[in-house]
Amino acid sequence: MGNIGVWKFIGRRLLLGLATLLVVSIVVFAATQLLPSDPARAILGRDATEQSVNALREELGLDRPAVEQYWDWLTRLVSGDPGESFNARLPIMDYIGDRVLNSLFLLVLASVISIPLSLLIGAYSARKRDTAFDHVSSNVMLALASLPEFVIGMFLVVLFSTIVWQVLPAVTVIASGEGPWNHLDQMILPTAVLVLGAVPYIARTARASIIEVNESDYVEMARLKGAPEEVVLWRHAVPNALGPVFQVIALNVAYFAGGVIVVEFLFNYPGIGGALAASVRVRDIPVIQFLVMVLAALYVTVNLAADLATVLVTPRLRTRLK
Q1: Which residues contact 44 (CB under 8 A, 6 or more apart)?
Q2: Where are the domains of the chain?
Q3: Which residue, among 37, 4, 46, 119, has the nearest Cα to 288 in the 3D structure?
Q4: What is the reported pLDDT for 220?
Q5: Dihedral-angle region of residue 279 (phi above 0 means left; psi in -120 to 50 means alpha; beta otherwise)
């Protein structure tokens, strides 16, 4: 019965996620339709004749009713074909596919580093509660949480790339068609900025959650049975404290999707941030729509995974599912 309840929960969350994406698609399409300038005139320039502008609008399908344009765009997007860039006149995946992959690689790299590091800091701070390490780490986490990404990034550039030590590249130089995994030295500073932005929130939540679990009856029972403190911490306290932590992890991974735009601009990283800014400048509507939907899908997926993980690690939530 419990398994059936979990599958029902997953099904409800999937339907909610799909409904959310549908609403986002409507909002995104409506917002791009309300952009102040005409995409056809933006492509052809101010000196273009009205006849040529109308011909291009017809070629791009901009002369059709908005509902018909939306349905055509949505069906193509669901089928895996996001359309063609107005500006480059290329399929969108050929035009910016590398940039999407670059941003996802940066996001995954920052997540793989920040999540285990945050759990280690949070668990050790909880174990060393009210010690010098706990006080110092809490103050450092609070200071980092108060700093915007661009401030952290500029500080790291000054420290490691310009004035103090010149040991890391200040900007990324990744040619089109090259993967960022072939330039890992250039990935250090962008990744560090995202990691330092996420660790304070996850670590502080992990610390508070583990401290609360440490005071529970079943953890005290494990201690009374003679279990070593390391075993109590990692086998009993940490697994049962992960529920709230997963929610904060989801928020911070979603933050990566927005923060990555700032980081990409700061380090000249060829990702979706630059592609989105360039597309807005030239009114490349299909690219704007596609990139916003990619970010929305990332948000929905991360939150779905966090909800599922929270249920799986929290016995009382699993028993409530029917």
Answers
A1: 52, 53, 56
A2: 103-284+294-320
A3: 37
A4: 74
A5: alpha
Structure-block tokens of residue 225? 């049975």
Sign, CA torsion 100/291/41/68: positive
Distance between CA 120 and CA 124 in Å, rounded?
Answer: 6
Question: Residue 310: is it exposed, middle or buried by C-beta count within 10 angstroms (0-12/13-18/19+)?
Answer: middle
User: What local confidence, expressed as pLDDT, does residue 317 receive?
Assistant: 61
What is the model's pLDDT at position 19? 92
Residue pointed to by tokens 């070629």: 59
* Sequence letter at residue 276: L
State the amino acid at position 138 in one-letter form: S
Which residues fall within 8 angstroms of residue 289, CB to CB, at 6 or more apart? 28, 29, 32, 73, 82
CATH superfamily of 103-284+294-320: MetI-like (1.10.3720.10)
Q: 37 vs 30, 42, 43, 132, 294, CA distance in Å?
A: 14, 7, 11, 59, 24
As a whole number of angstroms, the distance between CA 288 and CA 166 comes to 37
Question: What is the pTM for the complete model shown?
Answer: 0.78
- Contact yes or no for 287/297 (Cβ under 8 A): no
Residues lower than pLDDT 50 in the chain:
1
Sign of CA dihedral 271, 78, 281, 147: negative
Query: Residue 23: what pLDDT?
Result: 92
**DSSP output for 129-168:** TTSHHHHHHHHHHHHHHTS-HHHHHHHHHIIIIISS---S
